[in-house]
Write a structure and sequence with these properties.
mainly beta; Immunoglobulin-like; 2 domains; 7-stranded mixed beta sheet; 5-stranded mixed beta sheet; 4 helices
Length: about 450
């Protein structure tokens, strides 16, 4: 049987993959928490979940950064690794952070086996620094180091990526975020500042290299090149003003939805918008090649944040598979089991049972199950572009440690009133009204 994602029926239909992952197993590849105080220039340093910020050296008044383009081994979540390309040993590359008015010099060393360049997406600069190979500059050949140097004449949420063999180099992970803070402190300061870069991957079941030739049928959807539950939780204190900066270098638009809050769209790669242009939303589409900043005041709880395209919160998604909903598979299941020992028929009543069986189902190595993660009440049945925003009353300023699952006040959890197992007593009425302060 052809093991490609399109035709590999068994791996997608049964949700093959590694065992379920606990949160303790995925606390990796993260950066130390920024200091609680603001930087001397009045801004809060950006935190990149599952990522790092690129350090720099001051040389004659210029902030000098160094990026190394190279092949890496990247782990999307425990159970799936792949040979990807990135910068400084990771994908996405480290976040570059600077201030409007800074003079920056970015040294780029090419350790790939083919040429490359870097385009500074959305940044105003001289034409010869724009990074389109053959148009603005010679290609950076293997073993060469090039310098990009320019003065930052704007602020906002930006990105960087190659403009050389883009289909391959972007498709296998070469990208990063470039955050420019305004020189003058913002009128409404934020207490926590996060950035998330979205991407898609075609990692066929049982394989170890992303396929850059795929145009639509992707099977891994990532926040900062991680899938849930390996995505680092976003943490804040109740009442803090939180900004999340989203960048999209995937090949799909992503309607990002945050539970439990109304947020304001406040900026993009064009900078922070005038306050009169801010608008209140609960879901915002971040288009391909765009960035968007959202801001909100934290309300206590554990709140899901995810792309609202349902297939983008799944892993190892198959395509063009038979629809088994409502189909009695008992007879054919016994026949298949004779040829494929351990086979279990699933999908007759829905897909939810897949996660329950991933502990003991076999399948291709290096392939994640479609659904993963466990919460305080059971399976979360998610993957891909999904994470949790954890907001707590008693969190210390500047504390980014995972506070564990939210302890819901008595009477504030949905409860069963009828069904198998008897009828529990009704829960007392509680006022659930909470108003988000912008």
């Amino acid at each position: 049987m052809n093991p490609s994602r399109r035709n590999f029926f068994w791996s997608s239909l049964t949700g093959f993959g590694s065992a379920l992952i606990g949160r303790a197993a995925v606390a990796q590849d993260t950066q130390p928490a920024p200091a609680a105080s603001r930087a001397s220039d009045g801004y809060v340093p950006v935190r990149t979940p599952n990522g790092v910020t690129l350090p720099y050296e001051m040389k004659d008044g210029v902030k000098e950064f160094h990026l190394i383009a190279e092949e890496i081994e990247h782990e999307f979540a425990p159970g799936t690794k792949a040979k990807c390309w990135g910068y400084n040993g990771r994908t996405p590359g480290p976040t570059i952070e600077a201030i409007e008015g800074d003079r920056v010099r970015i040294l780029v060393t090419n350790k790939l086996k083919e040429h490359t360049t870097i385009h500074w997406h959305g940044i105003l600069l001289p034409s010869g620094m724009d990074g389109v190979g053959g148009l603005n500059q010679p290609h950076i050949q293997p073993g060469e180091t090039y310098a990009y140097e320019f003065t930052l004449r704007q602020h906002g949420t930006h990105m960087y990526h190659p403009h050389a063999d883009e289909m391959v180099q972007l498709g296998v992970g070469m990208m990063g975020m470039f955050i420019i803070h305004p020189r003058q402190p913002e009128a409404k300061l934020v207490d926590r500042d996060y950035c998330i870069l979205m991407h898609n991957w075609a990692l066929h079941p049982g394989t170890y290299r992303p396929d850059p030739s795929v145009m639509q049928d992707f099977d891994l959807w990532t926040f900062n090149s991680k899938v849930f539950p390996a995505t680092e939780h976003l943490v804040a204190k109740t009442g803090e003003r939180i900004r999340i900066r989203f960048g999209n270098l995937s090949m799909w638009n992503h309607p990002i939805h945050l539970h439990g809050h109304r947020f304001l769209i406040t900026g993009s790669d064009g900078g922070r918008w005038p306050e009169a242009q801010w608008r209140s939303e609960v879901t915002e589409i971040v288009g391909v090649g765009q960035t968007r900043d959202i801001e909100f005041t934290g309300i206590a709880g554990d709140w899901a944040m995810h792309c609202h395209m349902s297939h983008h919160t799944m892993n190892a998604m198959g395509h063009d598979l038979p629809n088994t909903l409502g189909v009695d598979q008992s007879e054919i299941g016994m026949k298949v089991a004779k040829l494929l020992p351990g086979y279990m028929s699933m999908g007759e009543n829905g897909m939810a049972e897949h996660q329950d069986h991933t502990m003991h189902m076999g399948g291709p190595k290096n392939t994640l199950p479609m659904m993963m993660g466990q919460g305080p009440f059971g399976n979360l049945e998610m993957g891909g572009m999904f994470t949790v925003v954890k907001i707590r009353d008693d969190l210390a300023t500047g504390d980014y440690n995972d506070p564990g699952w939210y302890k819901n006040p008595e009477g504030t959890v949905a409860y069963k009133v009828s069904g198998p197992g008897g009828t529990p007593a009704p829960s007392p009425m509680v006022d659930h009204s909470q108003h988000n302060r912008h």
